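Model it.
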Amino acid sequence: MKTYKVGTRKSKLALSQTQIAIDLLEKETEYDFEIRTLDTIGDKENWKSIEEIEGDGVFTRELDEALINEAIDIAVHSAKDVPTNLRKEISIGAFTERKYPSDVIIGNKFNELKDGALIGTGSPRRQEQIKRKRPDLKVTKVRGNVETRISKIGKEVDAVVLAEAGIQRLGIEKKISEKLPINDFLPAPGQGSLCITYRKGENKIKKLLNKVDHNKTSKAVKAERAAMNEFGLGCTVPVGAHAHIKNNKLYIKLEHVEKRKKVTLSGKANKAEEIGRKAAKKIIGEKK
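Modeled.
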């Protein structure tokens, strides 16, 4: 029986997420899977903010190289970390079911933070959203894995804002002080889903990954990514997006946080990417 090599980052969260993907694959296929870990530039240069690291895909670049060089067969990522402008040799095979798209705050409830409290986050989007809702709060950049960020509470910051999905996957959801309302804190495009990539042209792997592609999540994330791509932006710019499907209809909320422009759009679920692009064009100011 063939064993497929699965590439991922070395962090505890990345390994947890990869095991989730492997469990899905082993349930749906007859193959075995083994994990191969790599350090990405985003992990190596963790003293820098994401914006200071040159180029796209700071958490995916080395895994892409490993795929292209056939050191691994597939790679597992947080969908929000995957650039919209994929390398020509790489394809997306699956988006796993999204259960926790929201951001959360750890350290105190958002509206119970004292005036002038210091909030840690590495995301420009979150920084802008926090300052918009509570101009009295101070925001500072924090990098590092989830555990490192949480360890700064009470020492360097009063609270941190993180993706709920990561907290849930690490099994430390009891640390959550509050889930932030999604309408006020639109998440990063793709947040909450896992993205599995493979080498373009590997049709056997494509069929294998199709078995774990969650149809509703896949359409929703593709709409969000299509919107992001319309802006021509990477994962560090302050754009929030959340799409979901109900009764074969896709609904998307999209926001360019710096521009303070937000739109809501809906349409047929099978036109997901078109709806995402239309939403972005409404913000840009182009004709629909």
